[in-house]
Design brief:
alpha+beta, 5-stranded antiparallel sheet
């Protein structure tokens, strides 16, 4: 059974416990890597400046302590995959597990949650998952 490595687990530990529970269950059925949990002000400022984030510090959910967002990627062939199709499949899997656990989640591939992933939005963040208030 897949399990998180030390780095992924340390990143996940910076997140809200609901994200920890969710991804502990996700990794049991779909190997993945945690790319980022809590984000520093310097990192958020850089992501905002370069367009990787649309929110300035401290408005992004990654900026909260503990983080209310996590970036995760499917882990295939011994490494994190950023292939479009892999990320779409993984996003759907994570949303399904979140629904089973009763954890309200928004995915960066379908910001408005209408299941028309990527056809009705102009900002894609297929690796981003955040808790819904």
């Amino acid at each position: 059974m897949p399990a998180f490595g030390t780095t992924s687990q340390a990143r996940l530990n910076t997140c809200d416990e609901r994200l920890g529970r969710l991804f502990a269950e996700v990794v049991r059925g779909f190997d993945c890597a945690i790319l980022e949990g809590h984000r520093s002000q310097a990192a958020q400022d850089e992501y905002y400046r370069t367009g990787r984030s649309r929110l300035p510090w401290p408005k992004g959910k990654h900026c909260a302590t503990p983080s209310l967002a996590v970036d995760a990627a499917p882990y295939l062939g011994g490494k994190a995959s950023f292939e479009h199709a892999h990320c779409l499949f993984f996003g759907g899997y994570v949303l399904g597990v979140a629904a089973q656990l009763g954890i309200p989640l928004r995915w960066g591939g379908d910001w408005d949650g209408d299941r028309e992933a990527m056809t009705d939005q102009d900002f894609q963040d297929l690796l981003h998952f955040e808790l819904v208030d």
